[in-house]
Structure formats: C-alpha cells, structure tokens
Predict the 3D structure of the following.
Amino acid sequence: MKRLAILLALALTASPALAAKLSCEQLKARIQAKIEAKGVKKFSLEIVPQGQAADGKVVGTCDGGKKKIVYRRQ
C-alpha cells in the first residue's frame, strides 16, 4: 500500500511536466503502466474535464490543465 501511495505521489509531481508533451491518452497509458508494474490488478483510470466532480484520486492532469486523470481502486 505504501508503494501505491508513493507511485501516486510521483505521478502527481511528474504529471505537469509530462502534460505539456503528452496527450491525455499517452499520459494515462504511462500512469497505467506504472500502477500495473507495482502489481495492482483491479483499478480504473478515467479522463474527465477539470471542473467535473469525480470519485477517486486525481493522479494527473493533461490538455493544459483542462482535463484530469482519476484513479479508482476496485
């Protein structure tokens, strides 16, 4: 569980730098790969507009801050 928290923290700090260079789908794929590498099996990532409420933890932003990537563990 600590590893997942560290992973999510890293994703949050790295996402602004990546957001300028990657599309939302590319950033989502990178975050997904990192989570799967930690052994997490049941989770979802969803791209939603910045103003929209979403259940879960925001693990990245993209499209110049207009969208966010939300993580939910199932």
